[in-house]
Input
Amino acid sequence: MTSAAEQRAPAGEPAAGSGEPAAVNGARRPQPPTPAVWPGAPTPLGARFRAGPDGVAGTNFALWAAGAEAVRVCLFDEAGRETQVPLTELTHEIWHGFVPGVMPGQRYGYRVDGRWDPWTGARWNPAKLLLDPYARAVDGEFGLPPEVYGHVRDWPEQQVADTVRDERDSAPYVPKGVVVHDDDDWSDDHRPKTPWADSVIYELHVRGFTMLHPGIPEELRGTYAGLAHPAAVEHLVKLGVTAVELLPVHQFAHEDHLLRRGLRNYWGYNSIGYFAPHAAYAASGTTGQQVGEFKRMVRALHAAGIEVILDVVYNHTAEAGELGPTLSLKGIDNRGYYRLQGDARRYADYTGCGNTLHVVQPQVLRLITDSLRYWVTEMGVDGFRFDLAAALARSMHDVDMLSPFLAVIAQDPVLRRVKLIAEPWDIGSGGYQVGAFPPLWTEWNDRYRNAVRDFWRHALPDVREMGYRLSGSSDLYAWGGRRPYASVNFVTAHDGFTLRDLVSYETKHNEANGENNRDGTDDNRSWNCGAEGESDDERVRALRRRQLRNLLTTLLLSTGVPMLVAGDELGRTQRGNNNAYCQDNEMSWLDWSLLQDPGWRSLYELTARLIALRHRHPVLRRRAFFSGRSQSADGLRDLAWFTSRGAEMTEGDWYAPAATLGMYLSGRDIPGRDERGAPVVDDSFLAVLHAGDRPTGFVLPGPPWAERYEVLVDSSREEQTGAPGTVHPAGARITVPARAVLLLRVA
Output
């Protein structure tokens, strides 16, 4: 009886990569002659078109594959015919060679030979065509038929299936890398370089944002060119955001379980090519044209004063665990690229996606940092949001803020100057690290999200947590030189309910995902305002719109960096689906017709007005934490908190149940100076937040805080096209409407 490792694919199917010509109708197809290959150079990694010896044009190929026994570059012509070129030079574990005559647009992949010994983590299989980890462009789309698995996927004994090597050729079923010529120096581009404190981030999906936009030509919808179109840029400019945070645009693959259900990965958190713009988002072509199209999009956004931040997924890849496909790293050097368990057949999974990149390994760290620098220097982006960043900060096992990854970023002359945002958690033990990342980093602050949601559904036991979140989360970030803009404040993100669904559903409705509503979080902290789902009751609808105004007003008045999700300003709904990662359809795409509805149009106008107010007033975007101490003889402090009685809050007030909170922001005690060295002076404001279901009285603080107050924002009002303008004397008892925010300017 043969061992599992000796099992082979069905008889009559030659082993790919063996050098044997393919069979056609029983006859052998002639192979094209093998091109010449010169030694070339081990750096830079990837396929780089250049002039070789004597000025001969060609491409240098370099691949790190430490434990491999042989590496072949496979070149494909337009008919899909394959020519294999052996790389015989090996320098510091890098296989390399220069192939004369290989020009931009050439499609290619690798076949890597080595031992098949899954018990020790060795999974080399030359029958599988592998994507170059450094490929600048990818042509074709990943399907997942059995042939693309290094093991026999459908082996009857599934508990050992990953140990049985599959000999079938995967080349016809996988995309190829594309040689790209990069000669763009970006001399005509002007980066906005918006300071962190002045930033307003807008999280969007390239495809979803543009698919239904009536002002974008149909042939450009869903693409980088569509996002660069004036109609798309105009919305961003009018709204006032300073940066777009793009959901993943690295080349990604669809998961097998989705393809089997007729679905696709929409969000893109399943990367397989860290240098390649996702080809499906290109209108101009996929044999290198996607690179230029992405750059033109970045230029268009920069010209409008908008930065481009990429959501990047370096914590895992689309190859999943031991039962996943062999697409790239798994077949190049599985033990080198991935964290393995003590039983090396299994993968250490801190991500919930089957595998975790072994970032402690120098060449893996090099892959990530080379990718980051490439997107900054050659693609023009301005920053990154790191998915499950805690997984990248793990040393051998534990999260370590002195880890190699964080240390390398901190000293890199390119990367330390761009915007760096951590999603500060993963699913492993000790993976929740909110507030723990070092200076230079900002973080998604989920404690802000939870507090604001709970306050407006009147579920906070007291107002202590809300006070911290409104004022910049000093309890989390006031250490080590960090600033209030270390906190990226958000109420919603791509993952979870939209803002409209947050006030319309109490439970998730993910049936369309095909997982019997088991996927997605159950901890939504939502309130449906009295009816589940869409309602014809105008009282319910009006209350929901008011809650949306409350949530947006709170977000944009809070100290820190606000992040909006595309479409929340329009009242976008996903019909209660809080995990729409596989819904590439109208459920996820922005419905631009909402702008024609007066109710939703007014929400958009309020959002734009609040962002403009934030841009005008530095007291709303402080660069240093509040001290809470008196800065002058009259006792006026930079931050003060008031009860509804008009009295400053005592220690007991912070611990008492309350639905109302008054926050005073002094504009005369702003630390720092402007660009000319002058003191920064601004108006002072009083924000009153009331989450109760009935109106309440509120006494406006008297001198020295103010002599009178002018109402600028009243979230109880449907229309916000102009300032309410009402002026109240200090000491007056005003009525705060039920569930409302009042913003008053001190006069």
Observations:
- Residues 114 and 334 are 11 Å apart (CA to CA).
- The two ends are 90 Å apart (CA to CA).
